Amino acid sequence: MKLKRYLYLITLFSLLFFYLQPSSNVSAESKAYSQEQTNDTVQSTTEINLLTDTNTVDVNTNKHTQIHLHLKDCPNDFTHVYANLKEQWIELTRQGNSPLFIALDNGEFVKDDITEFKFITATNIEIIIPVSEVKIGVEAEGTINYWLENCPKAADPNQPGVDPQKNTQIHLHLKDCKDLYLKIFARIKGEWVELIKQGNSPLYKAPDGGLYVKDDITEFKFITEKNEEIIIPISNLKIGVEAEGTINYWLEECLNNQLPIKEDNDEGKKHTQIHLHLKDCVDGYSKIFVKLKGKWVELVRQGKSPLFKTLDGGEYVKDDISLFKFVTSDNKEIIVPLSAFKIGVEAEGTINYWFEQCPKPDAADKDENSNTPPPPTKDESDTPTTPNVEDGQPEAPTGTLPQTGDSGNILFYLFGILLMATGAFLLRWRKTKEI
């Protein structure tokens, strides 16, 4: 009788186990789904709040403001005052006899839109002052205040007592092509110095505290999005007056590496200049020549810079240039072919050549066969590899794990059936024994 009771208990336990196990799975899945729905609701609410906050910030940032410029002791020194707003010059209006100049009302301006101020003197001289040199006040009731403590004045280089070696900044103003170049450089004292863009404005300037004068600046270099270099001499730029230690340059037209070729009626060749740029050996030669149309033409050095160029008005194209000749201080001649130079793009009628290494007299005496590069060797890393195949199945890709488990409930059902079969067998064996 005891054995029979045990069998009944085992059977009841098995049935209860099968009943509760699927229910727990469903309950867990329901809880997971509810949690996921809750997370989605919280995330949606957060996104809506963030969107609302962003819109609020935009509305507050783009509020209507006025621009107030306060001059101290020189409000009568200028006939017109302008502010550069979103790359456009807007005139400021003077308020009676006060030193206050303001922009027109209802202007939708913020601080980032203002880059510089321009002052026109009675003699029609333009003086440009960047915002970085002006004291900026707090915004009060939609007003941006600027104070200029010292009066801007154009420097007179002929005036006695003016030091020509004063500390200056270099300002390059682009018109409509400020976003066409990755980097812009100025050649100062023979070295390339990168110009820094001022926010979203078309103004580029050299780092502060540079000891520069006009004669130290020879050309500008523009790096396009395709990593192409365009070099422009300062003779092709509009140069402004020095104001408060600033040298201003304006580029009226955008540059590109596909400038149209001006064809003549007879030969179709444009007038160009040849620019040769040396790096570290500018003082190692007494004369430098270029062979043009079969004739040697001397290149003229530009001051103390490493730039040599032909005289203006030469009717040259790339095909006319064949060789360069360097004459050392001891009258030794070094002939260098064009293949040893880096050739730049033609910009504003200029052909540029760069020589990175100094030519030496014994460079031409070397055996050409010694410079023959060895045959290329096959790199085993370039050989394509095939995946391992075992039993007709390719190897699983790296980073993935094989499925070694089973998420079903079949084992529980088999275990229950086994328990019930065992109980039934014992019960039948018990009855058979009693008979």
UniProtKB/TrEMBL annotation:
Q: Where is the signal peptide?
A: 1-28
Membrane-topology annotation of the record? Peptidoglycan-anchor
**Family matches, as InterPro entries:** LPXTG_anchor
Q: Where is this region: Disordered?
A: 362-403
The protein's UniProt keywords, in alphabetical order, are:
Cell wall, Membrane, Peptidoglycan-anchor, Secreted, Signal, Transmembrane, Transmembrane helix
Domain (Gram-positive cocci surface proteins LPxTG): give its ranges.
401-435
Question: Quick check: keyword Cytoplasm in the entry?
Answer: no
**Transmembrane segment boundaries:** 410-429
- Name the record gives this protein: Gram-positive cocci surface proteins LPxTG domain-containing protein
Cell location: Secreted, Cell wall
Organism the protein comes from? Pseudoneobacillus rhizosphaerae
